């Protein structure tokens, strides 16, 4: 099938430019979708884009554009159906929650109207008002996958599959699949499976339903019910397993509570793992892929400081990140919540850095991390012209502009981190009775010892530590 220059299967991107979305934003959205699709292993062969008031309720695109898309994939361009379009119902469906959609489907089955075959095209703009581009030449090999840059209802998804003859993904589906592929730890795998089952459940219902309807109504209900029960059971099992893992993690986090902690947060591919590597000398995965990192890694800042500073690398964010996925990565993000300092990593060389920063801010706001002290880092400075660098600093004079690949920049960042903690530390004297010398290690772990003296009461240490750590140490060694 594939030739040597293009060993990847081909995909077509589909985007609808809705009112209020500028050309630049629309192009950036599609470019990002292309990178997601590439991360998933496909080559983008063409893009079909249409300007519309809203997504067509039945098939996203209007009939003309749908036919154009189907020519690329080799499909028929229409949804095989005898059913009349009933727009209002279709629109309701589009807006409805998955559970509601399910009820409507049952209702439609009863009245004999196939809800998923309703196509409403009358909200399409006149042909001349459309600004559409598709790649001129259809590729020699046909794309086998269509990826739509919007969240699709189960019926839109199956309508598009029938019209194009290709496998159809929506944006969420692509992200869920990438997460599935990149999950490494047991915890991440479980989190992703929960998100995936939640995502697949309504779609599974739909496709199972239509297959069974072909076999005769009624016969399928028990099978669908069985699938649902299986999913429910599996979800319960996963949640239980996850709760146990997360309990362990909470304990580990609790043990680290007094340590100096920094979390790298930011948009996917901004360079968080690269900075993590550079700051800690660890071998975390760095890749030019979206969502390369799904697990939180915690390592000490190198060369080690006293007390040591722990750095965590976290999962990246993306615009329109499905809520379920955010929820399932909650525990990863708790790491950020408990840090004393958040480093917001932004790819300064990306023309959409502002909206990427906004996405990061809003996710962190959502989990309540907006009050954690933070520092803005514009990464990939090696790709910036001096003027671009200036422009960034003009917008954010408080930011650091740096490159994860430049050792002197990383050294400066290390210094910034150390100074941040230095400013928040307090000094005090601890007296360690001779009887409790065995616990001296705790002092060294959480504080920096400035001087030592001995007298009849014990060892007198002048130390610097964060206020909370100091309070705990003082209590621990009180006579
Ligand atoms: N030119 C340049 N490339 C960089 C820099 N930092 C990171 N990169 C590249 O950007 C890509 C993504 O880097 P990662 O460190 O994996 O990014 P991340 O933020 O951890 O991404 P996710 O884990 O996917 O969220 C890789 O190809 C890196 O080599 C930099 O300072 N300059
Ligand atoms: Mg990473």
UniProtKB/TrEMBL annotation:
PROSITE patterns: G_HFLX. Residues 97-119 have a biased composition (Acidic residues). It holds the Pfam family GTP-bdg_N. Residues 260-425 form the Hflx-type G domain. GTPase that associates with the 50S ribosomal subunit and may have a role during protein synthesis or ribosome biogenesis. PANTHER family: GTP-BINDING PROTEIN 6-RELATED, GTP-BINDING PROTEIN HFLX. This is GTPase HflX. It comes from Archangium minus. The gene is hflX.
């Amino acid at each position: 099938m594939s030739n040597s220059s293009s060993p990847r299967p081909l995909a077509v991107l589909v985007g609808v430019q809705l009112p209020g979305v500028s050309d630049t934003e629309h192009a950036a959205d599609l470019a990002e979708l292309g990178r997601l699709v590439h991360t998933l292993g496909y080559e983008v062969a063409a893009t079909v884009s249409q300007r519309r008031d809203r997504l067509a309720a039945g098939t996203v695109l209007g009939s003309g554009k749908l036919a154009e898309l189907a020519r690329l994939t080799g499909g028929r361009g229409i949804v095989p159906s005898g059913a009349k379009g009933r727009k209002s119902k279709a629109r309701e469906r589009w807006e409805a929650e998955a559970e509601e959609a399910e009820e409507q489907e049952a209702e439609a089955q009863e009245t004999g109207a196939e809800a998923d075959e309703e196509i409403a095209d009358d909200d399409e703009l006149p042909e001349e008002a459309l600004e559409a581009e598709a790649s001129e030449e259809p590729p020699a090999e046909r794309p086998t996958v269509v990826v739509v840059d919007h969240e699709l209802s189960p019926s839109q998804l199956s309508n598009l599959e029938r019209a194009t003859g290709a496998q159809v993904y929506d944006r969420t589906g692509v992200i869920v699949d990438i997460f599935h592929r990149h999950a490494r730890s047991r915890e991440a795998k479980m989190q992703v499976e929960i998100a995936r089952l939640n995502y697949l459940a309504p779609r599974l219902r739909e496709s199972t339903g239509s297959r069974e309807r072909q076999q005769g109504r009624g016969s399928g209900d028990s099978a669908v019910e069985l699938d649902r029960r299986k999913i429910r059971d599996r979800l319960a099992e996963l949640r239980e397993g996850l709760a146990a893992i997360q309990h362990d993690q909470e304990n580990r986090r609790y043990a680290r509570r007094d340590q100096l902690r920094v979390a790298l947060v930011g948009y996917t591919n901004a360079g968080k793992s690269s900075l993590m590597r550079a700051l800690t000398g660890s071998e975390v995965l760095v890749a030019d892929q979206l969502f390369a990192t799904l697990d939180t890694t915690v390592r000490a800042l190198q060369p080690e400081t006293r007390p040591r500073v722990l750095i965590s690398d976290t999962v990246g964010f993306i615009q329109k990140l499905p809520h379920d996925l955010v929820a399932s990565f909650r525990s990863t993000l708790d790491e950020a919540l408990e840090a004393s300092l958040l480093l917001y990593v932004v790819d300064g060389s990306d023309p959409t850095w502002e909206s990427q920063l906004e996405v990061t801010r809003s996710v962190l706001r959502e989990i309540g991390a907006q009050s954690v002290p933070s520092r803005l880092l514009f990464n990939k400075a090696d790709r910036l012209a001096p003027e671009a660098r200036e422009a960034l600093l003009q917008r954010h004079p408080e930011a650091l502009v740096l490159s994860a690949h430049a050792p002197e920049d990383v050294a400066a960042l290390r210094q910034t981190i150390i100074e941040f903690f230095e400013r928040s530390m307090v000094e005090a004297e601890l007296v360690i009775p001779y009887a409790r010398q065995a616990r001296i290690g705790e002092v060294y772990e959480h504080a920096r010892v400035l001087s030592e003296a001995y007298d009849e009461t014990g060892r007198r240490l002048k130390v610097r530590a964060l206020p909370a750590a100091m309070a705990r140490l003082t209590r621990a060694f009180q006579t």
